[in-house]
Specification:
Shape: globular
Number of strands: 21
Strand content: 25-35%
Helix content: 25-40%
Structural class: alpha+beta
Radius of gyration: 22 Å
Number of helices: 12
Oligomer: single chain
Length: 383
């Protein structure tokens, strides 16, 4: 197996302290948002044999295994991250696989450069993802029931929100949500900025359930995404709990440290809380307008100590081991590629000693015995 040297991305919303605290390093004073583990071409992990992209390209079947190559092609189909949100991320959705293929082909036909700021589809893949909390973790996930959202908006006492409140009382529910989100994102920018300012003042005054939206408005003053965020479920994960985010589900991460895994894609349609491009017509085509429970996941334990986070897709499979005794060993050998990530304590993986934030890549079929006292996340595929 290969010890991984991973890139930390300094996005503006990142916490300046959470990842350094996990790694036991000194903060630089700059935001440290995500540490990437995998073979994404934007920031592949480095090994003693070259980047993980180079290692896999040299012999895909040896590194990934014949079954994974047959199912996903000669590439690692997931990206594992440590994510540290110090401020809200953009409100966003991801396309399903068919939508991604159609959108990518259309933008290719129209000659839109892949790096153009108004490009929606960077690739032809979908981007389901899972976030597992390492600390308390706040996020938004899926639509509230329209009547619940109407009550939340109405109690702010902001006159310019009354039309949205009325729309949310309409039927059917999916049409009501579609109309309100459309109205929010297409409103006159100056009028919306005033509405958001009034709503932010009311959220600050009311506190409680409104506190997350006051914080969002502090980071994104005047952004229509502040009002759009109030249509969504707010959820606070406790350490070890997770959220699965499938296609078309609007979501945003607000604050906290977690382990995130996703299909290897950059396709994002933004709804707000961002200075970046918002393509309203395409967004409305992708969003699934139905109320839903956030669906907090708790891991299912097996007799061998593996705690699995069940998801309905095959590009990734995330589980964890909480190792209570230094003398006990677990054989994690698997016919598919793996990344093993330590998040607490001290874990021995093969010949490598892993402390929090350290990881290894295990080629398909290679012996993978772990021991120690700590927490180890295991990322692989279903093939």
């Amino acid at each position: 197996m290969d010890r991984l040297d991973n890139t930390i991305r300094p996005y503006a919303w990142g916490s300046p302290t959470a990842i350094p605290h996990l790694l036991g390093t000194e903060p630089t004073g700059e935001p440290q948002a995500e540490m990437w583990m995998g073979a994404h071409p934007g920031a592949p992990s480095r090994t003693g044999r070259g980047t993980l992209v180079e290692v896999i390209d040299a012999d895909p079947e040896r590194e990934l295994g014949p079954s994974a190559v047959a199912k996903f092609g000669p590439r690692l189909p997931f990206l594992l991250k440590i994510l540290a949100a110090g401020a809200p991320l953009s409100l966003q959705v991801h396309p399903d696989l068919e939508q991604a293929k159609e959108g990518y082909a259309d933008e290719e036909r129209r000659g839109i450069p892949v790096d153009a700021p108004h490009r929606n589809y960077k690739d032809a893949n979908h981007k389901p993802e899972l976030i597992c909390a390492l600390t308390e973790f706040d996020g938004l996930c899926g639509f509230r029931a329209p009547l619940e959202a109407a009550g939340l908006l109405d109690d702010l006492g902001v006159d310019s929100l009354k039309p949205y409140v009325d729309l949310l009382h309409a039927h059917p529910e999916d049409a009501a949500l579609r109309e309100v989100l459309t109205a929010i994102l297409t409103a006159d920018p100056e009028e919306m900025s005033r509405t958001v300012a009034e709503a932010a003042t009311a959220c600050t005054r009311l506190g409680g359930a409104y506190a997350p939206y006051a914080d969002i408005a502090h980071h994104y003053p005047g952004d229509p995404g502040v009002i759009a965020a109030m249509l969504l479920n707010h959820v606070r994960l406790q350490p070890g709990e997770a959220l699965y985010l499938g296609a078309g589900v609007p979501h945003a991460y607000l604050n906290g440290l977690g382990v995130e895994i996703m299909a290897n894609s950059d396709n994002v349609l933004r709804c707000g809380l961002t200075p970046k491009h918002v393509d309203v017509p395409e967004l409305l085509r992708i969003v699934r307008f139905r109320p839903s429970d956030p669906g907090v996941l708790r891991p299912e334990a097996s007799p061998d100590g593996e705690e699995l986070y069940e998801t309905p897709i095959d590009e990734f499979r995330l589980s964890r081991y909480v190792l209570p005794e230094a003398g006990s060993a677990h054989d994690l050998t698997r016919a598919t590629p793996q990344i093993l990530l330590c998040t607490a304590g001290s874990v021995r993986a093969g010949e490598h000693d892993l402390t929090p934030g350290r990881s290894v890549f295990v080629p398909a079929g290679e012996k993978a015995e772990v021991s120690g006292t700590g927490t180890l996340f295991r990322a692989t595929v279903v093939a």
